[in-house]
């Protein structure tokens, strides 16, 4: 039997006016989920512009596929994205009573039960996620602008059996500003069933969700950088490897050119050529330092992508911005907090609110999922403040100092604090007790 937040019993079907939660899985794999042709293949400015123009009209499947492929293929995008997601997943979280009910016993009990429910979500199948996996999949929205996950409710909605990740390219906004799930039978899209899906938006700016991800700037940079990589490979092929060249007079040209060509081929893969002396050849050299142009371009785009994803590019040797000397793998604090707040809102709306309704009734206080995304305190700065206050004649509270710095202050037998001068006799007494006996003298003979 289930009970609402006032203690009254409710049916196993919960108090949802629409009936019990939808059990089992609604979404399965279809042929359209696997594309034989990559959107990022043979990418040109005209093609990528067309992809973004289609997304502006709500047909954003191609844009979503491009976002997934860029993360798979672009090392300058994959690493900072993984870092940004790991930074959020590494934050401690807890379920708390809603604002204004922090001291309400029932609200606290519901919040504790919600946290326990989320921590106990299993991940049994190959394509099923626990709560940590759900967070990771929700953060896929950073590039395309959105992500969705199906909830597999247990009986009565009291538990969650699994989270099933969805393909971002299955979402369309073609006929509506609200997301719709496109299928083979319904390419125009079907509405998401209520209380059954977690739909997370990552809006880098306000407005249409199909334009809210980071795919727009990163897509153009991927195009330009890949063009530069191809040109660098051609440059290395032409000017990075030596090759053998043989010049033959007319007599040898007629008799031995086939043998000479065979010998040159045996030198290896570096290439070679056979010419008649009557033929003039010249390998035109690039300007001095020509390869530096390509490397500078790749370095520029790599730093730009990192800045777009993480918010900063400062390294431990080049401290600046919000990072305060931390390695560039660290996410800028304001971006980290924004990601955490966005997850909190989505999870409360799509997971905790229906769970609370199913198990405790429609009027029960919905818990708040809170990430502890606050920056770590700088103990050195606080210690300097304490020192300055002490020098000014102000004594900080000892209990606060012990709790803040996680240290035990010296106390005498009466429990009072001891200064360095006051504890010196106690220290000397302790040293006398521990002092070993001398090994020489009339009382110590072998």
Q: What are the main properties of this structure?
A:
446 residues; alpha+beta; 3-stranded antiparallel β-sheet; 12 helices; 41% helix; disordered N terminus; disordered C terminus
Report what the structure shows:
The protein is α+β, with helices and mostly antiparallel strands. Among the domains are: 2-217 and 330-371, no CATH class; 383-434, no CATH class. Helices cover 41% and strands 11% of the residues. It is built from twelve helices and twelve strands. It has helices at residues 45-56, 61-73, 75-89, 105-119, 131-138, 215-239, 250-265, 290-310, 333-360, 379-391, 398-405, 424-434; strands at 2-3, 9-10, 93-96, 146-153, 160-165, 171-172, 180-181, 190-191, 197-201, 244-248, 272-276, 368-371. The strands form five sheets. It has a three-stranded antiparallel β-sheet, with helices on one face. The chain has a three-stranded antiparallel β-sheet with strand order 6-7-8, with no helix packed on it. A two-stranded antiparallel sheet has the order 1-2. Strand 7 and strand 8 form a beta hairpin. The model is unreliable at 1-18, 315-329 and 441-446 (pLDDT under 50).
